[in-house]
Specification:
Blueprint (H helix, E strand, L loop, with lengths): L1 E5 L6 H12 L3 E3 H10 L3 H11 L6 H12 L8 E4 L5 H13 L6 E6 L2 H9 L1 E3 L6 E3 L26 H15 L1 H8 L3 E5 L4 H12 L8
Helix pairs in contact: 1-9, 2-3, 4-5, 6-7
This protein binds adenosine-5'-diphosphate (2 copies) and zinc ion.
Zinc ion binds next to loops.
Length: 220
Amino acid sequence: MKIILLGPPGAGKGTQAKSISSRYSIPHISTGDIFRKNISEKTSLGIEAKNYIDNGQLVPDDLTINMIKSRLEQEDCRNGFLLDGFPRTVIQAEALDRYLKLKNESLDTALLIDVPRDFILDRMTGRRVCPSCGASYHIKYNPPMILGKCNICGSDIVQRKDDTEATVRERLDIYDSQTQPLIDYYRSKNLLSIVQGTKAINEVFESICNILGRDYNDNN
Ligand code: ADP
Ligand code: ADP
Ligand code: ZN
């Protein structure tokens, strides 16, 4: 099962990805999480990516594509994967297609979580994340069980530096110009499925399972 998640920042991709990954037993690969890990470990990739991310810009395609290719080479991706935050440009999507084609593989679904703009600012400014495991919370819509602590690993949750109102607006503009064209790209390949992301988190997950299928043990 090879899936990509599409949707604007704040659509709920990371939130849903955690549940999809555990139900369908495929690794959740978030380019944003990988970049943030590299930044905190001060690797050369992290140092190169940091300024782009802090300013809400996209990291250059070549850096991002090389990073994702080396991730997809890892053993745990043999039976499938869930990409969250990649591709974000047509150039990245074409690179992914070429990569899979060389291996005689192809994507199964491009799943768009559709959320109108007026929901987004509220979601993004209330978002809190776990720097250790990447779990995403919301101060109103999905608070952790213990104030300020990750449900999964107990770490202190934090606000991302790029989740300020000004940076979110910048990221939304970039989404519209660079990432939105991927919707047509995957529609024309008959791979696009759409779920409405405005309902509650568990209801969105139910809609996703209806699309991906219920026989999750044999689906890999
Ligand atoms: P993305 O990965 O697409 O940027 P996240 O999964 O991090 O989005 O979600 C953005 C914010 O919105 C988080 O604070 C998350 O808890 C919250 N959120 C996610 N899905 C929903 C939902 N269906 N309803 C309300 N809030 C949500
Ligand atoms: P969001 O939760 O808003 O969807 P992510 O965590 O996916 O954000 O990404 C955070 C930042 O990391 C992006 O604003 C961008 O700077 C960088 N980034 C993540 N994925 C990519 C990508 N595929 N191409 C370029 N930059 C990326
Ligand atoms: Zn955690």
